[in-house]
């Protein structure tokens, strides 16, 4: 649940989601759920030439199980907050 | 008797018929906002399916096969897709061009030839459905 809460706080920020099939999509984080499924808005594919079928897609739903990375803006990462949350989760569950 | 298959569908076996009821799965919540919209669904095996969700028109769903700069749309009719096979569901803007202008449509026979011959390539890399797909959990 830790990263679910973390991503909820990042709604509205611009992120880049890299999938396991190497497709990378930049967009505004619209929503996330408990499975870490991600809904992005205003999307652009990073390597557009390699993925022509995605040309006119501007909103998409990405299944959590196919995500490899979620690239975040540096100022979206509060290390201390994450450390505290991790310790709490590890302790109590 | 009802048997739950996964988080997104229930099949009623008792009467020998099947109904697919969409539960409140994440895909369902997204899909209900996408009714009558044209969607692009990327599958784990690398296939790209396009179609309009839950409306009745003569096109139904079709698969778009892309090899290099060629593409072919192969009609499929009504498809029910199990959630675990889905990679991405994208909303296609109706007025926008779906593909770059340099791509040309060809017949099904031609595209099959192209993908078997291994000629398809984006830039310097080969394209094939397996490479574009996601196998298991890597």
UniProtKB/TrEMBL annotation, chain A:
Q: Name one GO molecular function term.
A: RNA binding
Per the record, the GO terms for biological process are: mRNA splicing, via spliceosome
Among SMART domains, the record links this protein to: Sm (SM00651)
Which Gene3D superfamilies does this entry report, sorted A to Z?
2.30.30.100
Listed InterPro entries: LSM_dom_sf, Sm, Sm_dom_euk/arc, U6_snRNA_Lsm2
Q: Which CDD domains match?
A: LSm2
Ranges for domain Sm = 2-76
* Cross-referenced Pfam families: LSM
The places in or outside the cell where this protein is found are: Nucleus
Which cellular component terms (GO) are annotated to the entry?
catalytic step 2 spliceosome; Lsm1-7-Pat1 complex; P-body; precatalytic spliceosome; U4/U6 x U5 tri-snRNP complex; U6 snRNP
* Keyword line: mRNA processing, mRNA splicing, Nucleus, Ribonucleoprotein, RNA-binding, Spliceosome
**Which family does the entry's similarity section mention?**
Belongs to the snRNP Sm proteins family.
What functional role does this protein have? Component of LSM protein complexes, which are involved in RNA processing.
The protein's name is Sm-like protein LSM2
Which organism is the protein's source?
Helianthus annuus
From TrEMBL, chain B:
Protein origin, superkingdom:
Eukaryota
What is the protein name given in its UniProt record?
Answer: Uncharacterized protein
- What is the species of this protein? Smallanthus sonchifolius
Identify the taxonomic lineage of the organism of origin.
Eukaryota, Viridiplantae, Streptophyta, Embryophyta, Tracheophyta
């Amino acid at each position: 649940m830790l990263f679910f809460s973390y991503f909820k706080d990042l709604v509205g920020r611009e992120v880049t989601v890299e999938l396991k099939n190497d497709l990378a999509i930049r967009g505004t984080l619209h929503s996330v759920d408990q499975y870490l499924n991600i809904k992005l808005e205003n999307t652009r594919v990073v390597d557009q030439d390699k993925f022509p079928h995605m040309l006119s897609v501007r909103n998409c739903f990405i299944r959590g199980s196919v995500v490899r990375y979620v690239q975040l803006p540096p100022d979206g990462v509060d290390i201390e907050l994450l450390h505290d949350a991790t310790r709490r989760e590890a302790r109590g569950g | 008797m009802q048997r739950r298959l996964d988080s997104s569908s229930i099949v009623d076996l008792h009467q020998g018929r099947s109904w697919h009821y969409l539960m409140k799965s994440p895909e369902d919540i997204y899909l209900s906002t996408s009714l009558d919209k044209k969607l692009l669904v990327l599958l784990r095996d690398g296939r790209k399916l396009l179609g309009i969700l839950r409306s009745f028109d003569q096109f139904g769903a079709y698969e778009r096969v892309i090899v290099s700069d060629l593409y072919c749309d192969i009609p499929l009719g009504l498809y029910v897709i199990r959630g675990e096979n889905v990679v991405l569901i994208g909303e296609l803007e109706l007025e926008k061009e779906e593909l770059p202008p340099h791509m040309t449509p060809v017949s099904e026979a031609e595209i099959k030839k192209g993908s078997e011959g291994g000629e398809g390539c984006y830039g310097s890399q080969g394209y094939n459905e397996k490479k574009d797909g996601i196998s298991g959990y890597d």
